[in-house]
Protein: ABC transporter ATP-binding protein
Amino acid sequence: MTTASQETPQGAAADAPPKLRAERITVKFGGLVAVNDVSFTIPDRSVVSLIGPNGAGKTTFFNVLTGLYRATSGRVLLGDKDTTNLVPHRIAALGMARTFQNIRLFGLMTAEENVKVAMHSRLKSGPFHTVVRTPRQRREEREAREIARELLDFVGIGKFADEYARSLSYGDQRRLEIARALALQPSILLLDEPTAGMNPQESARFVSFVHRLRDEKDLSVLLIEHDMSVVMQLSDRITVLDRGEKIAEGGPDDIRNDERVIEAYLGKSGRSKSA
Ligand SMILES: Nc1ncnc2c1ncn2[C@@H]1O[C@H](COP(=O)(O)OP(=O)(O)OP(=O)(O)O)[C@@H](O)[C@H]1O
Structure:
């Protein structure tokens, strides 16, 4: 197995502690071991991809990190906080935001409103201020609007702030999902198959966008991604799962040439196909 735990991704401070550590995670569904004793870290300011053939356990592992599934054993540390098996909104409040494989937006709300809904948990005003519309509430609303507009500009859809989410193109809906996740001010952003349904031009733009996220928002990004060209261009580090086990970990060049990875994707006799 290629190991890269000592590598420092581009832009990361050499001595910065990892943003996330998953230690010996196992998930069983009845007799099926979907994730088997998998450990990994997400370094500071890095882009890490989780790849593997269908059924490898990627989504299950992701769902454990974000609290949607309970680990049978093992633990997850977000910074220095133990988040193992906390409920998803607690984990989100501690700095982990995610998008979903199937876009989950409020279609009949505008793009700006979708982002403001996500910011709701950050606002200080309680129900009294909301009903009576105190100066504090009006100030918070103004600030929320400004922040939402900034985030929409950052993801490149500022001009659609007043459009209904459902009227945006597929690629722009994905951007809106990311703006909404950023409204939580996360330290880690998890993206589940973000380029699914994108055309090659949109995927190419997406690669530089994720690097901007890492560099300008001071974030680490973890993705599940099937498009190998995107994975290879995007990732500081790649972790490969196969049948629930971690079979390789390293930079794109290590993974591209790793025998176990080639075999997992192509089978022993399938080297002529591209991963
Ligand atoms: N809720 C569940 N209940 C029972 N089995 C499950 C559940 N979720 C996943 N599995 C099983 O766990 C294994 C890993 O599935 P998982 O969805 O994590 O793989 P994946 O790598 O994300 O696959 P894909 O690339 O196809 O999305 C599979 O055998 C799957 O059938």
In short: Strands lie at 20-29, 32-42, 47-51, 73-78, 81-82, 96-98, 188-192, 220-224, 237-242, 245-250. The chain has two domains: 1-95+186-269, 107-173. The two ends are 18 Å apart (CA to CA).
